[in-house]
Amino acid sequence: MLRAVFLFLFIAIAFAIPIALFHPESPLPDEWHPFEPLAVSDPVTPLTAWKLRRTLEDPQLCLEVLSDAADFEVLEDQLDGPNCGISPRLKIASVGSSQLDDLETTCATALTTALWEHHSLQPRAEEYLGGPISRNAHSGSYSCRMIRTPSGEGRNWSTHARALALDVAGFETIDGERLRLLDDWEGSDSRSTYLKAVRDDACDWFGLTLSPDFNALHADHFHLQVFGWGGCR
Predict the structure, then answer these.
(1) What residue segments make up the domains of the chain, in order of their start?
(2) What is the pTM for the complete model shown?
């Protein structure tokens, strides 16, 4: 009898999986469906990181996903030699509801930032600051240069040379409150708590996240790198 029950369950599951995955009226929510594209506003699931990687590997898909999460203009690619350039090159005006000063970067950087904005910057702002973030104060994405180290210029090219990183100096709230890493990182007030919380969250989205806790070179900004070895400091 028990064997018959297991056989019935196996057959039921075998039929249910193709229906769930391939039927046009699949009961699976999009965020749980492996063949549905990533959406920034979808709840985070164990599939989200995989969907993000797949999206970042496809420039056209990246632009399609970003179109629902950012205000941007596609520009002509910029190439400044074999090690420097921006492709695809975008001019970003905002991600989510956060305005940005003029920013030229790649779709990969913009999309990862949009996910961080939606799932961390805004909910954490409601939690710790009592209202939403209206502006992301960055200090740039693209810079054709080598890595900087405490002892001087390194021997490897920076990810900024391909606009695959963003430096964030702070934020402003809709009420005009100004937060800056250089001024507000240390302490135990709500500003410091917010900055540390969004740094920790950035580690879930970016391949490398560096903050004032890393070294003096990052005393005034987060270095948020799309691809990396998973460092979080």
Answers:
(1) 1-34, 37-232
(2) 0.89
